[in-house]
Amino acid sequence: MVAAIIGGTKNDNPFQVRRYRARRRLNNNTEARITSSFRLCSLMKLLVLLIAALSVQQTLRFAGGHGASTGPNQIATSPSVQLELEKPLRAKYPAFKKIFKAKTAVQRESTQRSRQEFQHVQDKLRPCHLEGDCLPLSPSSDPIFVRNVIPQNRFLCGQLIPGNGIFVFRRFPKACSRNTRSHVFSPGPPTLSGGNEMPPIDLFWNVNSLRLDKDDELETVSFPCSIPCRTNRKAVGIVSTVSVKDTPWEILSTMEGEAYFSQAKIKPDAYQNDQFYATTSFKSEIPMPYFSWSEYKINNPPVDFDTSIKGALFLANNCNSISDRESLIEELLQTSLRIDALSGCFHNSQPPPGVDLSNSTQVQQQYLFYLAFENQKTEDYVTEKLWGSLRAGTLPVYFGAPNIRDHVPPKSVIFVDDFHTSRDLADYLILLTKDKSLYESYHTWRYADLDESFMKKYDFTKVHSTCRMCKFSYAMKHGFRFDYRSQEVQQPRFPRKTCRNKLGLVGYPFKEYWLSGTGASTSAVHVESRENTKTCMLNNDNRVLTIARGAAYRFVYDQDGVTDFVINGMGNRTDLELRIETEISSDSLVHINTQEHWLQDASTRLTILASKEVRVSVRKKGMVQLPVQPPIRIRVIVEDVDHFHKGAWKYHSYFGEVMVQDFFFPLEAYKIVGS
């Protein structure tokens, strides 16, 4: 039996029905059928439960302890201790995903020492509470063992508690008190740009080719970016896998097309397996087109009509392309259009005198046309063949990406697909060689400001793709919005902060009300705060709310950008209700299980977590209400709905999933007695 992960009341069972890996929501009808089957017989009950567990693939049951209730520090305890650290915790909890750690030798040695010390004193452990008998620590007091059962690192009193690891406190920092909260990412709401207080995003290219037991293989260097970003950037290949440290994410990175490299093909549901893309496709999370503003100044002056060769240039060395451009070239060579093939394929001429063939721009500037024929016909796969010819000032004749019109300024390119036959194409090009005005009409765009839609489409290329990978990862980790068009981190619809009004009630990102009574017959109860200021800066003086003249005390915290309520009672009052009012335009409540509930519209999701079973109801659009019987912990997560990934609105976001794990699997604390 696992040591109590949720300390507190006997109802603090974290999941009645819980899923992470499968990420499927529970069908309420299935749950009802299971409940009904309990009334038949013991054999039928076991059979139905077994079928439900196999079909839903998400049932995880954990034993909750019967110790004292957890308080503000969210530290769990247990009357028994599970001493099986030699077995990976993820094997015991298969729902916890394996994440990339990249530990140094010092970190690995520290982890091993902590495990050995734990095993040495395992018979002397007893549970304690950081808000109670764990503190204060003095030179004569017992050390405190703190255990983290989830893969994510967490922090307590400024000290990193490694994921699936332990840490022994022999003396707590002065800043550590009974009001100190553990956190995963930040002690308060995260900042939009990171800053020095936020850990950097670490990117590792091709981990499988690294010696992870060698510290020099794990070294990262700072990468220029508006958020903290670091990378090893060592083993970069044609197709690379980029691992994001302390996450399960892998980003497939390549500028090759999917016709030759099938792994570059975007799988719409890959995100469910923590797989993301940085390819030439604009369906990638991080598009990496060949075009960039730093490399291609495409609105240079055009070539001189009068002095340029009245024909077309063709350069290619892959003579067996998937697009079969070779057949098109062969057909054009049968016409009277002049085509000079100066490279490996169809080589039939030499560069003009004084022209360096290795300088493609100089070569292209000698001709009226350049045959920009791609080796594959893949959407968004637009290579230097097009961009280089636009930069050179010649007129590209394009064959390749079916959606090429989405990528170029109007009337800047001749499209092969506009012509029924290759002879029709050749005849039109010959016409252009004889009509200066018609030819130059394809270059008028060069003398005006670039088309606004083109500017917006490629504006993000001003930022390096490595930095954009860091921005994407930062937004995903901290629950910010990532604008996939601009490739920028943005505040969600409701920015990540918790604000209180003058009464001491939460007023943002939702409104908090306290009522007494049940059902429709509820009325407001008296609330009182030590401060009467409206602020978004929570502290020990303004986080406490006295409810119903001392019937309950509510503490509010905002670590990691969520809103946590810890409600303790001074009596046996059972008629208190918490009302949460939002701007969410929905009255449809999704019960993930009896301790997790979603209220969601097209843009925003409100998640309510409770440390014990509660019955949450909807009063009207955007308003939910739940009975509160202290002691209880409640977490409220407000986040944007992901519309970029197909079907993502049905699943936890990464941020939401981590916050759920953090809530239901808090740090465990034990005293090491007699050390």
Task: Provide a descriptive summary of the structure in words.
The structure is a single chain. Helix 1 (28-37) packs antiparallel against helix 2. This protein is elongated. By secondary structure, it is an alpha+beta fold. The strands form eight sheets. The chain has an eight-stranded antiparallel sheet with strand order 23-24-25-26-33-30-29-28, covered by helices on one side. The chain starts with 27 loop residues before the first helix and ends with a strand. It contains twelve helices and 34 strands. Mean pLDDT is 83; it is low at 1-94.
Question: How is the topology of this model organized?
Answer:
Blueprint: H1 28-37, H2 42-56, H3 89-92, H4 105-120, E1 125-127, E2 144-148, E3 154-156, E4 159-161, E5 165-169, E6 201-205, E7 221-222, E8 229-231, E9 239-244, E10 250-254, E11 275-278, E12 309-314, H5 325-333, E13 339-341, H6 360-364, E14 367-373, H7 384-392, E15 395-399, E16 414-415, H8 422-434, H9 436-440, H10 452-458, H11 465-478, E17 481-483, E18 488-490, E19 499-500, E20 506-508, E21 511-518, E22 521-524, E23 527-529, E24 544-547, E25 552-557, E26 563-569, E27 576-581, E28 589-593, E29 596-600, E30 604-610, E31 617-620, E32 623-627, E33 632-640, H12 654-664, E34 668-672
Parallel strand pairs: 6-8, 10-11, 12-13, 12-14, 14-15, 15-16
Antiparallel strand pairs: 1-34, 2-5, 2-34, 3-4, 6-9, 7-8, 9-10, 17-18, 19-20, 21-22, 21-27, 23-24, 24-25, 25-26, 26-33, 27-32, 28-29, 29-30, 30-33, 31-32
Helix pairs in contact: 1-2
